[in-house]
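Quick one from the shared queue. A colleague (R.T.) flagged C2H2-type domain-containing protein as missing a structural entry in our internal table.

Convert sequence to structure tokens.
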Amino acid sequence: MSIDGLTNPPAGYVCTFTGCNAAPFQTQYLLNSHANVHSSARPHYCSVKGCPRSEGGKGFKRKNEMIRHGLVHDSPGYVCPFCPDREHKYPRPDNLQRHVRVHHVDKDKDDPLLREVLSQRPDGPNRGRRRRGGPA
């Protein structure tokens, strides 16, 4: 049962935005969250003064995107071991991994350095945590 006393419709919660082909959502909450993609509103802002995504700037449609963006400011950075420019740092390991897959396709898949980069996981207390309800 949902909070408003109605049961989940058999077809799920369907987006009625014209032209939207999203699959039905399991909950009203997920449908409401999805509705943000159809809005131009960007109500979530970075708290770092001067950031282009801070108040008065571009902002974010979703809170989780704003939280993820915070790594740009907080992350120690992940440096590509294959690039001569050691100053450029990626805020998350998956950003570095995408860079390596796109720009260093010439690397041997058995290269130990490549394997190390592709196996990196985020560091810190809030990184890689299991979601609520999952095994600890």
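Confidence is low (pLDDT under 50) at residues 127-136.
Helices lie at 28-35, 63-69, 71-74, 93-103, 112-119.
Added to the table.
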